[in-house]
Design brief:
single chain, 13 strands, 7-stranded mixed beta sheet, 4-stranded antiparallel beta sheet, 14 helices
């Protein structure tokens, strides 16, 4: 099982499982920008040796200032963290909710953080018949005071209507919105709740910088909320949480406007193309909105996400077995969208893998 640690992108486990060096895999299990880090990251790395002997800025002032300018909010409303995962854990520890509503399937670390903090979970099960969309009627059935929602959601790729989230806030609930993949949305301004969060004590928005800028090895994310709430959270944060290299890289990538434009143009073209090709192979694609696709495999004897993952791994192609997400069965996989030549390699491996199970069923 490649998801030994609950995530995709575990190349060490892939090496141990299939016997190939990491560089020989094409990794569709991890949802990173396929262009790799922008040029500004390389410049920072080349210069970093000259300042590695200095402490990082404990207040992360340079990056906070650039993010405040980008989102047009006050710097005091922004908290930088060691990836979105640290901030998810931090806000749950701070609020200590006794009961949290999660809409499944969703990012596994939401539930992990809640359980570690001693809380309980009230599940809302999203329906495949409705393409796993979160609806107002589902939320109306909940009476919880704390919600953690992904928008776009992982692994479905579905956005949540901001009006539904604000309805929860106005009726007295505290809501944490994970917008880790929001950078990939062309109409980001229509869906993000960042500027709402600065005006509401019970609304927090978490963003990741690792997905869009392809820097998962440098843990970097940020949270936006009301200034007094962010100040309280900062006091609970582990000192020196964000190292100086991460801070410098964060500042550098925000200047990469050409990189961002190229990414959006790539996704505009590549996403519908790959969806069409996958559907031609008989897979059902959930109509999400980001740089990954949740797909359901056709019914064939012996064909499961786990068995297909193993066969494709032997061909050097890694995919995510999405059955490990609560609310999905063994027929669901998740694929990152990559560059055209890589996507063609995925399709070729898929075609060969699916044919193997089809032939076995005929025999």
């Amino acid at each position: 099982m490649l998801e030994r640690y609950g995530h995709g992108g575990d190349l060490r486990t892939a090496e141990e499982t299939y016997g190939f060096p990491a560089r020989q895999f094409i990794d569709f299990s991890s949802n990173m920008n396929p262009f790799g880090p922008p040029e500004g990251v390389k410049r920072v790395l080349l210069q970093y040796a000259e300042q590695i002997d200095r402490y990082p800025d404990p207040a992360v002032r340079g990056l906070r200032a650039k993010l405040a300018q980008l989102h047009r909010v006050d710097e005091q409303s922004i908290l930088i963290g060691n990836g979105a995962a640290e901030l998810i854990d931090l806000v749950v520890r701070a609020i200590k909710p006794s009961m949290t509503t999660l809409a499944y399937p969703c990012f596994t670390e939401y539930g992990d953080a809640i359980i570690k903090a001693g809380g309980s979970i009230a599940p809302v099960m999203l329906s495949p018949e409705n393409d796993f969309a979160l609806t107002e009627s589902m939320l109306d059935e909940c009476n919880a005071c704390f919600y953690m929602l992904g928008s776009p959601n992982n692994p479905t790729g579905q956005l949540v209507d901001p009006a539904l989230i604000m309805k929860l806030v106005y009726r007295g609930a505290t809501v944490v919105v994970d917008e880790a993949f929001m950078d990939f949305i062309p109409e980001e301004e229509k869906f993000t709740l960042i500027r709402e969060a600065v005006n509401h004590d019970r609304l927090f928005v978490i963003r990741s910088m690792t997905k869009f800028y392809a820097i998962p090895g440098v843990r970097l994310g940020y949270m936006v909320g009301a200034p007094q709430q962010i100040t309280a959270l900062r006091k609970l944060q582990v000192p020196w949480s964000v190292n100086s290299l991460a801070q410098l890289i964060g500042e550098a990538v925000l200047d990469e406007q050409e990189y961002a434009a190229r990414t959006m143009e790539w996704l505009r073209v590549e996403r519908p193309w790959l969806i069409g090709r996958l559907e031609e192979l008989g897979l059902r694609v959930v109509p999400g909105a980001v740089n990954y696709l949740l797909v359901q495999l056709p019914e064939q004897p012996g064909l499961t996400a786990a068995s297909l993952q193993y066969e494709m791994g032997r061909m050097g192609v890694l995919i995510r077995d999405a059955s490990h997400f609560i609310g999905l069965d063994e027929s669901y996989c998740r694929f990152a969208i990559k560059l055209r030549h890589q996507n063609e390699w995925l399709l070729q491996a898929l075609e060969r893998g699916l044919a193997k199970f089809q032939e076995a069923g005929i025999r």
